[in-house]
Amino acid sequence: MATINDVAERAGVSVTTVSRVLNNRGYISEKTRKLVYDTMEELNYQPNEIARSLLRKQSNLIGLIVPNVAHPFFAELASAIEFYAYEQGCKLLLCNSQLDPKKEREYIDMMKRHRVDGIIMGSHTLEVEEYTQLNSPVVTIDRKIADLPYVASDNELGGRLAAELLIAKGCKKVAHLCGHLELDLLANLRTTSFEHTMREHGVEFMTLQTSMDVFDQHQYETMISDLLSRHHDIDGIFATSDIIAAFVIKWCHKLGRKIPRDIKIIGYDDVNITSWVSPSITTIKQPITDMGRMAVELVRKQMDGERIEQQNKLRVQLVERETT
Amino acid sequence: MATINDVAERAGVSVTTVSRVLNNRGYISEKTRKLVYDTMEELNYQPNEIARSLLRKQSNLIGLIVPNVAHPFFAELASAIEFYAYEQGCKLLLCNSQLDPKKEREYIDMMKRHRVDGIIMGSHTLEVEEYTQLNSPVVTIDRKIADLPYVASDNELGGRLAAELLIAKGCKKVAHLCGHLELDLLANLRTTSFEHTMREHGVEFMTLQTSMDVFDQHQYETMISDLLSRHHDIDGIFATSDIIAAFVIKWCHKLGRKIPRDIKIIGYDDVNITSWVSPSITTIKQPITDMGRMAVELVRKQMDGERIEQQNKLRVQLVERETT
After folding, report:
1. How many residue pairs bridge chain A and chain B with CB atoms within 8 Å of each other?
2. CB A319: neighbour CB atoms within 10 A?
3. A275, burial (CB in 10 Å: exposed 0-12, middle 13-18, buried 19+)
4. Judged by CB atoms within 8 Å, which residues 154-213 of A form the interface with B?
């Protein structure tokens, strides 16, 4: 493989000159610049990005920590983040914490060593102080940690929109399936605001918490079949993810409850599966693409020393489909 | 942030000694080694991974190129690859080619510059010679390129198992929805083998190709609604992905075709959504976790100069659920 010395020798210039061209530093005549570029092309010279990172003190790497990219919400978010990182000339290091604080901690140490330019944190497990002690720019997704900047969608509005739709559709007894409220997530505001709106309108409701493991499908099955078997008069369900909503549909089919005639269902996120299942799921759309774009933008702005807002709250939207 | 100089000064040893401890080179007494480690801990010194990569000529990075991680198959594959890469002390660079040869080419150039230890290639777009000219170890997923090692599941067996099940269930007129056969993918063997088995048993069938864009859901809707509306007597469908199978279920619901009474459906992959939709999807299970594990193992073995097989074909399995 050609080295910087080969390029310098063939072009008849010094290594310093080649280095200046590469790093766009110091005065170089157009003629010399062209000569160096032509020679690099001729020799198929690949500047060593690792060596250049050392000089520039930038790695062009963004680290993304999510619970598990196999979950549709995080898969679609990772896809959006990768898209915008690429636009900024950055590459994405993907880390699944898998609800394992040890793994998350090791990933953070690794990111420090690799001098990542920034970390986007969509995980839920680790104690927060680990993130406040980093030297790199950090952006969190849907989680408020000390004064770190975060991107979230308007969970309060989401909870209210869901409640209002079920009420408008005439539901009299509603169940809300939410995440584990012990976790300090902004998503919990959906629950607060949903319950508040229900109380305001005097509609009967109950709230059921799922466990932390979003991949424990068995718990969804048990929880939902129990709920529907015990409460035959439930006529509305607001689930905190489209996946949970899909399981509700499944059990309604099994138990012969007609959707939306007997029971109305609203999901959350608006991931692709909302249109893959039937009936297709009415949901509260999180602007996943915009959330990814904004997370990358907030990393870049911190790198460039620009002023940023701590709170970055994006609008949600009710998307009506066939379950309501 | 503490530097190697700070560590040397505080420990009262030379920078070379600290460097030797870090890189495990040259003779260092146990006493000195412990002193250096204790001092590093005391000063919270993080060795600069970039600088160490340069010394070691290893980056501990594995690059993964997929069409789009938002697709459930690639999301679950990426999750498995990340899991096993982490076990090997490697980090994962995630690249979505998004069917854009320019983006895929730029990513490959970037990976060369970053001196990734290996590339796992699950994309479909690029001309093959780009991959044969790399210096890093490469492993492809479900694609045979020159003599590069690949991981695939047994597509031939998959196609045959699907055909045999539909025949055993008494189907008389079957449609097969496959990917774009122009793409040189090993997955095309599913189609060959499915058609072969159908012919052997003298069962009527038709094959419909989808376009290259696995995210163009509109095409699925049109193709499937057309198919079912025009051919009322179709009583079996073999879809080349679980997502396509989900769309078939959706249109059967819309058109009042009862599953599995009127029509039997088999998907492919066994991604999580097979259990999220109802009825749950009978499918040919690709061993996604094992495929990820093997891809990482093949990268590592190439790095270590171990002998590897070019063909690495894993078994598939029929998983019967509610659509057959």
Report:
1. 144
2. 16
3. buried
4. none
In a domain, B52, yes or no: yes
pLDDT of A27 strictly over 90 = no
d(CA B222, CA B18): 66
Q: Is B204 left (phi over 0), alpha (psi -120 to 50) or beta?
A: beta
The reported pLDDT for the residue numbered A70 is 93
Quick one: pLDDT at residue A54? 47
Residues 6+ apart with CB under 8 A from A81: A62, A64, A92, A120, A292, A295, A296
| Chain B residues lying within 8 Å of A114, measured CB to CB | 49-50, 91
Q: Do residues A279 and A293 both lie within one domain? A: no
Could you tell me the residue range of the domain that residue B257 belongs to?
Answer: 155-287
Per-window interface: B 120-149 vs A, CB < 8 A: 135
Residues B223 and B99 in one domain: no
pLDDT: which is higher, A58 or A85: A85
DSSP 8-state assignment for residue A89: T
Asked whether residue B173 falls in the same domain as residue B247, the answer is yes
**Cα A90 off chain centre by:** 17
Let me know whether A68 and A129 are in one domain.
yes
Least confident among A30-44, A196-210, A242-256: A30-44
Interface check A276 vs B, CB under 8 A: yes
Give how many domains chain B has, as a whole number. Answer: 3
| Same domain, yes or no: A237 and A304 | no
SS3 label, residue A214:
coil
CB A252 within 8 A of CB A191: no
For A249, the closest of B51, B93, B278 (CB atoms) is: B278
pLDDT at A113: 75
| Shared-domain flag, residues B274 and B195 | yes
pLDDT tens readout for residues B12-55: 988 878 877 776 666 778 888 888 888 888 887 776 655 555 45
Whether A49 is in a domain gets the answer: yes
- Complex ipTM over 0.85: no
Flag if A278 and B250 touch (Cβ within 8 Å). yes
C-alpha closest to that of A112 among B45, B18, B63: B45
